[in-house]
Amino acid sequence: MSTRILEILISSLPKLLLYCVKVTIPLTVCIYAISLVLALILALVQVLNIRGLKQFVRFYVWLFRGTPLIVQMYIIFFGLPSLGITLSAFPSAVIAFSLNYAAYMSETIRASIESVPKGQVEAGYMIGLNYFQIMTRIVLPQAAKVAFPTLFGSLIGLTKDSSLAASITVVEMFKVAQQIASANFEPFALYCEVAFVYLMLNTILSALQSYLEKKMTWKTKN
After folding, report:
1. What one-character DSSP code corresponds to residue 222?
2. Rounded CA gap, 117 and 98, in Å?
3. Phi and psi of 81, rounded to 5°?
4. In terms of Cα–Cα distance, which of 180, 163, 181 is closest to 172?
5. Could you tell me the CA-to-CA distances from 200 to 19, 205, 212 in Å, in that order?
6. 175 and which of 33, 112, 133, 166 could share a cystine (Cβ 3.0–4.6 Å)?
7. Residues with Cβ < 8 Å from 65, sequence gap 6 or more?
8. C-alpha–C-alpha distance, residues 217 and 220, integer Å
């Protein structure tokens, strides 16, 4: 590696880390929180078998799982202005990602809820609990343990996929790497550097996932 490239990498790293903390992480957390809430609502609509709404949810899941995320972002950011609806880049990315990830996560939550034995629901009724109490005290806590690995995996995937927001001009970490690369004509080195930052970020998240899974397992045994 030449001295020039090394100097570029060293000088660019603080800026990449700044935008990681300033934009990439907040973007990821915001999207994940919205997706999780929306996914829970979608899953409950299907589990409760609410007529009309269930069919709408199934259509929604089919639509957003069957079309590319980047196309969904382009429709929202570049397509909606032709209908008189103009959104800036950041909220456009949040909306597109949230709608997309909610579709996937809702299926995980639905399957996890349906994995809880029906006998436990019946037992809840036997001891005088209503449906809301059964769901919050019996079903959802158990479903959460089943869904946790997959849902946390979605967070790790979202951290990487957030780089796609650069395609609609969100100035996040990858977009900054593109700008530095175009200014210094060293795309290979800069893209490897930003890939390394993503790798380290997701390594931390993977370690956190393993730790939390062990804690949940320990609590279950005790």
Report:
1. -
2. 30
3. -55, -30
4. 163
5. 15, 9, 18
6. 166
7. 103, 104, 107
8. 5
Nearest Cα residue to 158 out of 178, 144, 172, 176: 172
Amino acid at 99: L
R_g (Cα) of the chain, nearest Å: 21
| pLDDT attached to residue 98 | 98
Q: Do residues 61 and 103 lie in contact, with contact meaning Cβ atoms separated by under 8 Å? A: yes
CA 199 to mean position of chain CA atoms: 16
Q: Nearest 5°: CA angle at 128, between 123 and 131?
A: 75
Structure tokens at 51: 């007529």
* CA 112 to mean position of chain CA atoms: 18
**What's the predicted TM-score (pTM) here?**
0.93
Distances in Å between the Cα of 183 and the Cα atoms of 6, 12, 176, 177, 215 are: 15, 11, 11, 10, 47
Q: How many angstroms separate the Cα of 76 from the Cα of each of 36, 107, 124, 163?
A: 21, 24, 45, 17
* pLDDT tens for each residue of 85-100: 999 999 999 999 999 9
d(CA 92, CA 73): 7
Least Cα distance to 147 among 29, 47, 70, 26 occurs for: 47
Task: Give 34-91 pLDDT, tens digit per residue.
Answer: 999 999 999 999 998 888 899 999 999 999 999 999 999 999 999 999 999 999 999 9
pLDDT at 25 over 90: yes
Q: Whose structure tokens read 């806590």?
A: 141
